[in-house]
Amino acid sequence: MEVLTIMLWFLILLVPTIYLYFKKKYSYWKDRGVPYIEPKIPYGSLQTSDNMRQTINTFYKSKSDFPFVGIYILITPTVIATDQEFIKDVLIRDFNYFTDHGLYTNERDDPLSAHLFNLDGQKWRNLRAKLSPTFTSGRMKFMFPTVLAVAERFDKALAELLETQITHEMKDLLARFTTDVIGTCAFGIECNSLKDPNSEFRKYGRKHIEEPSHGAFVNYLMNVFPRFCKMLRIARIRGDVTKFFMGIVRETVAYREKHHIRRNDFMDLLIQLKNNASIDGEDSKIIGKLTFEELAAQAFVFYVGGFETSSSTLTFTLYEMAVNQDIQDKCRAEINRVLEKYNGKLTYEAMTEMHYVEQIVLETLRKYPILPVNFRKCVKDYQVRGTNVIIEKGTAIQIPVYAIHHDPEIYPDPEKFDPDRFSPENVKQRHSVAFLSFGDGPRNCIGLRFGKMQSRIALIMLLKNYRINLSSKSPVPLVFNPKSFILAPEGGMYLDIEKI
């Protein structure tokens, strides 16, 4: 009987203790005079069934004159940036306070996770300095013929498919194209995904995106309790994916070094950094050699970032071309006009003259930002400009890219697809951080030039030779996959393709 009494009293005391603990935690923003979203025990401002993009969008709409809104992810205070000047402070002006993404890495048990996007602090700075010369406009010009050759194979493969049917699921088809591009440029390997949808490269790339090792809760624990998760030797990337990519990189590096093979691709530049601590022709200081594991991790993130982001962008672009035939016709007219000037040959110079093509790609990224939220972590106490509020070291900052891109105060009639938003005169009229699909500041997307080049080449090739139309299976209206970390259409993207 005494045991039951003790247990009863324990429960009677435990419940209010837990309640008071949560109430104390949930007073964080109120105590600091920050506008906040009312939390609910134990989930905080989020609910377990919430779609993150839609939820962050709702938080953004509650903005006031204060530069941000406070929320709680479980019990963790988090900042939702709502003011463009504050966002510019975070990304650019006061970048040294917000250098980190705050994402989990585990170099010992998960070597591919230690790539440029995930790394923080001095490791990130060192690696960024080493890799920046890889993505200059000059390097893009060198890689242009390689990407163009894959695009021509894509054109040929599509023409063959159209001999039997006109309706195709474009998301997978475009992912096979971008897989072949990035496989060639990052690994120097002919992946043949266009011919074989189940090629090894496509198989493991799809696995990494569609079948992650862990769900949202474990990912949250990895980011909030990284030391504990490292003690448990938790890996973010699937073991079979790691085994495949580490093996491919090891074989590729060994083969090239043994046979003294040089190519104008990412792998060649990474091998130079592994062996020489600098890149040929770059007047830069000695920045230290890459280890093999660092080389493999960068090749991996180039691969995943290169094929998935560009294929998703192209998928949404073609959808908008099918919906907006007048824009498609205008774009095709520009392509034909510029190509005529270059005797029908697509060159790097011809591509850069196609300004409307670039505006279409940028408007697609405005309406469909592949990463709907940008992350930063405060690395030292920071006083918010114009206030007495201190953002404490370790606080996560979320920049709601999708919500900003769909704010009618910034982009009138935001659901309308209008490439003229990105004409030079219209760009000048907007705030410098009104467009954030590539981030901004010192930690912007290092591969933005390559991504834009790959997307433009594919779009030019497709619109030059084909008309894109909606099919009976096209998703109207468009619905996003709620389970996908990046923005992706639910159930694929079926379109009719007509040979011109």
From TrEMBL:
Belongs to the cytochrome P450 family. GO terms for molecular function: heme binding; iron ion binding; monooxygenase activity; oxidoreductase activity, acting on paired donors, with incorporation or reduction of molecular oxygen. Its cofactor is heme. Keywords: Endoplasmic reticulum, Heme, Iron, Membrane, Metal-binding, Microsome, Monooxygenase, Oxidoreductase, Transmembrane, Transmembrane helix. The chain crosses the membrane at residues 6-22. Its main location: endoplasmic reticulum. It is found in: Endoplasmic reticulum membrane; Microsome membrane. This is Cytochrome P450. It comes from Hermetia illucens. Pfam families: p450. CDD domains: CYP6-like. It is a peripheral membrane protein. Gene3D superfamilies: Cytochrome P450. InterPro entries: Cyt_P450, Cyt_P450_CS, Cyt_P450_E_grp-I, Cyt_P450_sf, Insect_CytP450_Detox. Heme binds at residue 445. Coiled coil: none annotated. The lineage of its organism: Eukaryota, Metazoa, Ecdysozoa, Arthropoda, Hexapoda. One of its GO terms (cellular component) is endoplasmic reticulum membrane. It comes from the Eukaryota.
